[in-house]
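Hi there,

I know you've been waiting on this one. I reran it after we fixed the sequence typo, so this is the corrected version. Both the input and the resulting structure follow.
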Amino acid sequence: MTERSTTQTDAGPAGDPTRVETPLGTFHALRDGDVVRVRNIRYARADRFAAPSPVAPDPAESAPLQHVRYACPQPPSPADQVYGPQLRDVEPTEDCLRLSITRPAETDGALPVLVWVHGGAYVSGAGDLAGYDPIVLVREHGVLVVNVTYRLGALGFFSDGGSDDVAAAVEAGRPANLGLLDLLAALRWVRDHVHAFGGDPDQVTLVGQSAGADAIAHLLGADGADGLFSRAILQSPPLGVRGGRAEVHAGLVEAAGPLDPTGTVDDVLAAQQRAMAAVAGMNDRAGMPFAPEYGRAPMPSEEEFLATWRRRAPGLELMVTWTSQEGETFVQLDPRGRALRDKPVVGRLLAWFVCRKVTDTLFRTGCKAFAKDMADAGAAVVAAELTTRPVDAPMGATHAVELGLLFPNPDRWAEAPVIGPAGARTLVEAGRDLRAAWAEFARTGRLAADRVGTGPGWTGELRVTRRS
C-alpha cells in the first residue's frame, strides 16, 4: 500500500488531504505528519429498524467525507458535564455505519489491528470523536486503529419482542440487537478488507470502554463472532448490570409506544427519552436501559450465555480493567449524589461509601468474576485496576479517566472536568507507558509488567491483579 500527498483544499480537522493506494482502489485520506487516516468508509447499509447489509468498499464514496465526523442521532448527553462537549462539530445521521482507519503513512503491511468500540451507555457517542483520536498511539507503536460507529438507543438496541430470527423480526417489527449486528458487520469488514490498508486480519484486538467493553463482552457470546478476533481489552465493562433486564425492557416498550419506521428521527428520539424517563429508578438496570437482549439474535438465551462464554474461552487472550473510583462519575451525574455530598459534616463520607458501592457493584466485582470465569475456562486473562488520575483531580481515578491517556487530544480533554486543563497539558507524556502496554497486549496478548505508571501531571498506576 502506498500513499501520496495532494494539495490541501480544506482547512477542516486533522491533516492535509492525501490519497492512499490500496488493492481496493485509491482512497482519499488526511495526513498528519507520519500518520494517515481514511475517514467514513461505509461498512454496511441499513434501513431504520433493519439488520445491516454488508457493502464492498467504495473508494469514491467516502472521498468528500474526510473532514466530517458522523454519529448516530442521539439526544444531548448529561455526561457532557463530566466529559465535556463530546459531539461538537459532529453530524448526526442514520447513515452512520461507517469506520475510520488510522495507520502509519509508510508501512509494509501486517500491522496489528485495534478496533475501537466506543462507550456511552448504548445511547451516546460515536467512534470517530475527537476524544478517541488514536494518532499518538499509531505514531508511537506502528499499529492500525479502526474506529467504528454503530447504531444507538432506540435505533440500535430496542425491539418490540417477537422472533429471535433477524429476518423474521424485520418482517414482524423492530428486531433486537441491531447495534451488535452493526459491530459484527464491521468486524467482518475488518476481516475481509483490513489487509488492503496494511493491517493483519489474523491479529485483531477489540478495545472498548464502558458500554463499548460491555458490547465486546456480549460479542464474545454472540452467534457469528467466531474467528473475527482473538484478543480483547475491556475497560470498565459494567458487568454488574448484565442480564436480568426483562422488567426494564418491558417498561421501555410500553412507554415508547409504536415507532413508525417512516417517521422522523426526532419522533424516535422523543420516544427514546420518554421511555428512559419512564423506567428511571425502576431497578439497578435502569441506569443503562438500552442494552443487548438475550434470546434474540445474535444473542443466546440468558441461561446459555455463561456457557457460551466458557465454550469460546480457549484460545482467547483478554485484558479486563476497571478504575478504583468508577462511581465518582455517577455520584456527580446524579442530583441525589450531589445533594448527599453537600450534606454538612458527613456528606463527603456518605458520598465516598456510595461511590465505593457503585464501583464494586457495577464494575469491580463483575470484572473479577468475568476474569475468573474466562481464565478457568481456558482463556489467557490479565485483570488490572487503574488508579491513574490527574494530580488534584476532583473525581480521582473515575470512570473513563484513562481515555485521555490512551487518546491524548489535549484541546479536547481540557474541556472535560474529569481531566481538566492541568491534566490535559501533559497527556502525551503522562500516558506513554499506558499506551505502550495496550500496544504490547495487541501484539502479544500479554503484559510484561505488573505495574504501569503515569508521567508528569498525573499519579497512580495500572496494577495487575490476576494473570492466567
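Quick highlight: The two ends are 38 Å apart (CA to CA).

Best,
R. S.
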